[in-house]
Structure formats: structure tokens, C-alpha cells
Amino acid sequence: MRNHIQLADAYYRLSDEERKYGESASITNQRTIVREYCEKHGIILVEEFVDDGFSGGNFERPGFQTMLEHLKTGKANMVITKDLSRLGRDMTESSHYAERYFPEHGIRYLAPGSNFDSEEDNLMAPFQFAMNDVYLRDTSRKVKQTLNTKRNNGKYVACPPYGYRKAERTTDQLVPDENTAPVVKMIFDLAASGQSCRSIAIRLNESCVMPPLKYRVECRDNFTERGARRASDEWNYTTVKRILRNRVYLGHTLLGKSRKVSVKSKKKILVPEDEWVFTKDTHQALVSQEQFDLAAHFMGENTKANGANPAFRHSIFGGIAYCACCGAAMCSGGSVYNGEREKYWYLVCNNLTSRAQHRCAHGARIRYDDLMEVVRRDLNKLLSFDDDGIRAITESAIEQANASLGGADPATQIENIDKQTLRLKKMIERSYRDNIAGMLSDDIHGEMVKKFGVEIEELAARRKKLVEGETTAKEIRSAYGLFFDLAKKYTCVEKLDRDMLHAFIDRIEIGEKILPEGKKIAGPRTPYRQSIRIFYRFIGEVSGDNLREMQANRDREEAAHAAGM
Q1: Which stretches make up the Recombinase domain (predicted)?
Q2: Distances (CA, A) of 121 to 93, 104, 108, 118
Q3: Are the C-beta atoms of residues 550 and 394 closer than 8 Å to each other?
Q4: Which candidate, 158, 419, 431, 523, has a CA 20 to 30 Å from the CA of 440?
């Protein structure tokens, strides 16, 4: 029986593909039809929910899901859409909501354009659901065929990238956007002069340049509400990097890099590179090949520019050096010390140079040459070990790992635990026999079994850790073996380069400077202490004590050998 007061939630949906049909399919048109229907039939419209730019093949739409949550509050007892296709085009899901979910939850569903009422017999509904599903699949097939044909002919069928817009006469041709093309050119100019992606982003934000997605929302037509919610107010590292890597600015078209899993899924998967559609010289370029390559070179080197010196220095520590205080990457720069006009290069925490609200409280900073020398010396110590030294440092690492397990050899400890466990089990068996024979009361027997059981559980947990320790020892030996197999290719490092650094080292963590008491600023001659932790490939961080001990043993051996000669 229908409620006397009819309280309705209205739902409107429009996919990107349907937008081309104009006003007849628009959200505005749907809203007008539903409101007129409610007014004519005395229905109170409680709330309206919209999914603009969402396909009918997927029901995980924000507007639709929000409506379902609103219905659970009991504030509405009816759902209205313009027609069944607005609810969705997936036959199974549409039928589920219209004929099962809504009725089971006491919700009446109306689709006036399809003559559908969930409280009436709907003999034609299955055919309507099926036709909507067929429409979805057929539309998808036709769209794919059309897009593939246009791609293969060098037409640009995607949304125009930042710096371009679609030509007025044809939507398949890119032309420079007079508002944003100069920004793209400036980004490449800055990158080619050595500016980092992050510093370029900061500069654009300080100049109040509207970022790409925000520009599309505010300055272009036909942009969906979903896209508007995703629009950021600021430039960032990723946005700049994406522009610098995009070959569209060379005048080429590269499309088809991803595709949807299926018609009814929003999930996309990457397409193999040999299946991408690449067409050269399809539109006007914004940058030259030389400028693009130069920007790519500097970006690949992970270098930063010193504003006072365009001929900046390459940093080989990109992707390796990080601030120990906040975890941010260390970026390079240059400085002029006013006292002696001495030029020196340094690495500094990236969050120390960013905007105030993101600044690192104790940002690390170190002279570039100082870090080069520290890493070179540390690496040379490892490279200098012979087979005996390698075995010694490997066993030392294993001993440190074993120290957390009690110090003794894990195999010996496991053997002792097995003996203790066997003894406790025999004591439990004896307790049972004594209890049955009447030599031990039930209470004492119960306490003993409980006590011994707890001890056995503790021993089992201890044994598990020791077994893991044995595995750790094997892993340590394997890791050190891999590292020193690589090390045998080198004898002594006179000068570090990027390839060698990345071959041996995974990560370097640089702490803040600790100055002498009374000193607040470190000059070029000021002594200071600073933590530098080096994590090598395969073996991780090698204890400084281990290195010093191995080096001392080596020095003693060399001294003894020299004395005997």
C-alpha cells in the first residue's frame, strides 16, 4: 500500500558519450522532466543526486551511492529517474535495483519515460533492460572502431593536453592554446636551463599560474563535475614532470597507451608499447627536439639549477640521498660564501626549500664534495677486503643478528630447546600417571600441567624465532656474497660516478648538522658533526664498528708483513 505522503529522491545521470546528443539528454533536461512529473502527481522532491560524466555500465558512481545512503535514513520513500537508462545500462544491475533492491527496502521506483513503476506489473521491463545493455555494448563497439580509425589517421581523439586546444572547425586537430602554450614553453625553458620539476612548480605557483586541471575546469566547456572535484589549485612535481615527458609538445601524437578491462568496468590496464599508436608531425610543435632532449637529460640526471649559475652541477645522488629528519629527497644547489667569494655546491633537504607550511623542521644540508668523499672512503673500505676480510665481516653481521636471539649459535639453542621441551612433556606424562595412581591430587596435577604447558608454549615461540634466525644467517651470507661478487670488479674508487654509485648503494640518509656549543651558523671552516648512514645494495647498512675492526686487522697484518721483510 502506497504511503499517503510521497517523498522522492531524483537521480540524474549523463555519460560523456551521451553529451553529444545535446539538450535532450542533458542533466538540465532530465531535471526539468522529473520536476514537472513530481509537481503534476503531488510528489514532494526531497533531494536530487547527479552523476555527470559517468557511464551507465558501472554502478559505483558517487551520486548514486550517496543516494542509496540517503534512502537508508528514511527521508525518502521513492526514487525517480527520467527513464530506465538513467538508472543504468547494465541489464543485471539495473534489474536488481529496479525490481528487487528498491521494493525490498520499501522504496518505490518510477521511470516515467519508460512507463516503469515498481509497484505495477512491468511485462516489458526485461526487454527494456536488455535493450539498454545492448545499446551499451553496441555504443562501446562503435566508439572503439571510430577512435581506432581516427588514431591510425593521426587524429587526436583524446582530451587536448595543457598548452593546446581543439581546432574550431574540427575536434580532431590540436592547435596551440594562446593562454597556456607560453606556459609550456616557459616550463621547457626552465628545465633546459637546469631547474628542477619541483622548483618550476613552486615558481608557477608563486606566479599564480593556473594548473592544468584547474584551467580545464574554469576555462573550457563540457567538463564534468567529477573532473571538477579532482582539480588541484596548485602545480606540483608530478604535473611538471608529466609535461616535460610528453612528446605531444614536439608535434607528435601518441595514443592508445591504456584501455578499459571491459565495457562495464572503469578499470584501465596498460597496453604493450608496441601496440601504441604513434604518428609524427600531426600538429604544431611548441618546443624543438633539442630543447626537449636537453630538458629530458637534466630531468633524468635529477639535477637542480643554481639560480646564480646556469651552468649548474650534475648531482649523482638523485634518487639515493634523503633527509634523515623528514625522509624527503636531497636536492642540489650552489652557494657563494660572502667572506672569501668561495663557490661550493651542496645538497639540501627538499622540504627545507619548499613553502613554509611544508618546511622540514630540521632539514639536512651537506656540502656536495664532503658527501662524495665520505661515500668514496666508505666504499673503498669495503672494496679493499680480501676473502678473509669478507668472511670476517659477513660473520660479524651474522653475530649481530644472533645477538638479538640470545647471542649463542641458533642451532645450538634450538637443540637445547628441543631437549627442554622433551623433558617438560615427560614431566606432564608423569604427572598424569601419578594422578591416576592417586599419588597426586587433581588440583596439584592441574597446576603442574598448566605450568608446564605455558613453558612449552614459550619454548616453541623461542624456537620459531631461532629458526627464523637461521634463515636470516643464510640470507646474510647470500646477500654479502652478491655484494662482494660485484665488488670484485673494482679495486679502488678514485672518483665516484652515477653508475657506480647506483650499482653499490640503495640509499643514503643525511642528518642535521650538530655545531659546537655557541655556534648557530656553520661557515666553510666551522667544524661540525653530522650523521651519514649508507645503505648498500643486498647488505643494507654496514656497521661502522665492523668496518673499523676489519680495517684495523688488515692494517696490523700489513704492518706485521712489512716488519718481517
Answers
A1: 161-305
A2: 19, 16, 13, 8
A3: no
A4: 419
